[in-house]
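Q: Predict the bound structure with flavin mononucleotide.
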Amino acid sequence: MKISDALELISPRLPTGTLRQRRLRACHTVKDLRTAARSLLPSAVFDYVDGGADQELSLETNTSAFERYRYLPQVLRDVGSPDTSGNFLGRPAALPLGFAPTGYTRMMHPEGEPAAARAAAEHRIPYVLSTMASTSLEDLAAAPGADAADRWFQLYVWKDRELTRGMVSRAQSNGYRVLEVAVDTAVSGKRLRDVRNGLTIPPALTLGSLLDIASRPNYWMGMLRGEKLEFANVRSDEPGGHTIEGISDQFDPTVNWEDLARIRDTWNGSLVLKGPLGPEDAMRAQALGVDGVHLSNHGGRQLDRTVAPVDLVAPVRAAVGDSFGIFVDSGVRHGSDIATAIALGADACFVGRPYLWALVAGGEEGVGHLVRMLTEEFTRTMQLLGVGSVQELRARGPELLHCHEPAVMRTDRPGQERKSPRWMSLNN
Ligand SMILES: Cc1cc2nc3c(=O)[nH]c(=O)nc-3n(C[C@H](O)[C@H](O)[C@H](O)COP(=O)(O)O)c2cc1C
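A: Predicted complex:
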């Protein structure tokens, strides 16, 4: 090769775009977004997002439960123009994916809830605002761009029922389409990382966090420049006030099905229950006029050692029939996880941490990057499976999916474990 030919091969690539764009271009997976978020957040804030309750066993098995499933694709089926559109209780979406409610989102990034909701609107997927949000339901409904999103509101039933009723009517009058009642928070889960880190909300400037300023200056600059952090759906003079302890004290362990019946009577829109619901609870909700269930263990942040929500999809679908809404979250990290959930019988999935990491990594642009990444992964999975639409994936799911159980299983004789993986068809 002549020197001039060799020189042609060397084309120095100068970095283009903003720092944020370059960071996002280097993120090819949800795991990459998590790594980026870790490098930008103070460790206590990163742990607040990342961590789970107690021994974090639910947290761990949420992702590994998805990874146990294996596909048996069907070939030669013309998958030239796959239709990835989903449906959320009668409203079409570009993808069977939504953003789950997360409290205090502006602690992760000053653009907060409006940025996540704007990205959801732009990509035509639903966004659920939390009771514990750092943007009020009125402000989100009025935020340019976010107002166009399919907006849901997640409700905690509080000790002060007047406050709860007030929130339901505010959600109604501000155009929220779906009310999602979280039923997994009779009491607050114990997140040991937060306890050990001494995390307070809002984060306090302690000696530890002052040291942190040196290593995460942009985070602290963003926080100091941004609006005051508060639980925006509650006035500071209302019960619960503006502290995490005050709010957690408002969780009511006496909440029961009668409260739900009252909510059903007052709420005119679609109603969904969010929590780790088994077939019996799902049928009871259906009988009460609830429109769907959002199977979730709060991303492993409440009761530890719960069944992974993805494993509840098939039994709950069998119990409630075809037309009842089934959504699932906790552990969705790849487009193929969405495909697995649908093949098991879900209508759609939600994600929590992945969009928070994306928000940290790149604000609204980062959240858009995540949706494009998951869309691409989901589309490719559908094509390689040999299915042309989400409806087809759900209908043919049992033929396409097998469950791979890597767990060590006991034989009759104690002490002799069978270590080889067992393949089990879901039809069995
Ligand atoms: C930082 C954080 C805050 C959350 N806050 C709420 C909340 O206020 N209300 C709620 O119902 N769920 C909340 N969740 C749970 C999410 O809605 C969702 O169920 C969970 O994140 C899904 O699991 P994943 O993070 O593995 O996707 C929160 C989750 C995280 C990570």
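A: The chain has one domain: 31-403.
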